[in-house]
Structure prediction request, 224 residues.
Amino acid sequence: GYKLIGSVFVCTRVPSSVPRRNSKISCGAGNHSPWMMCPSDFCANANKLLNAESIRTTLMLSSLYLTAFEVLKIAIIEPIKGFFSLTPQKYENEVGIKFDEAEQYALISSCLWLQKNGALTNDEVDEIKSIREHRNEIAHELPNLIASEGSEIRLDLFKQMRELLRKIDIFWARADIFIELETLEVANTQDVRDEDILSSREIILDMITQTVTAYLEQRASSKQ
Prediction:
């Protein structure tokens, strides 16, 4: 295989000791410079690498995935911070992260707090870890996603993010206190069905999911 580093394709079959640039290696496709793509790899990946539509799709899906992840991340971290806004020391004791460092480090700790309080299951926390891992892959290895055959944006995770976001929002909707604007009395939300609860974050994620679905359907129909 190979890896795209900057603008150079580096053969991953290179030995652990870094060779000189004028040396040659053999990888089954003949001798070639370790600083160039193997001929067999280029042929295998040329369709994707030279396909403008494929590159456009990968870039679009990448940006939508990163945006969707940020929406989910905010839904996980910010409500807990708001809940403990008047007692930051209690936040630090329960979540295990400094209050002013939550945005950078509190994702998984916040998930565990939500799990402890019945909002998430252990499996769902593991799902969020997988979602974050793929987010990091997109953010830090985008050139490989664009160039390497078989490296794709995981579309199934869009649905997972949507379902996790909804579950978290319903948890907070049940936990929060709502005030009737006309009477300034505490509103009775016990009779409100889960399906009638909708947050602005859900609307954003719905728009992202619908954009992905519509674009892929359009691509599929254009190929017929």
About this structure: Residues 76 and 147 are 33 Å apart (CA to CA). Residues 52-83 form the longest helix (32 residues).
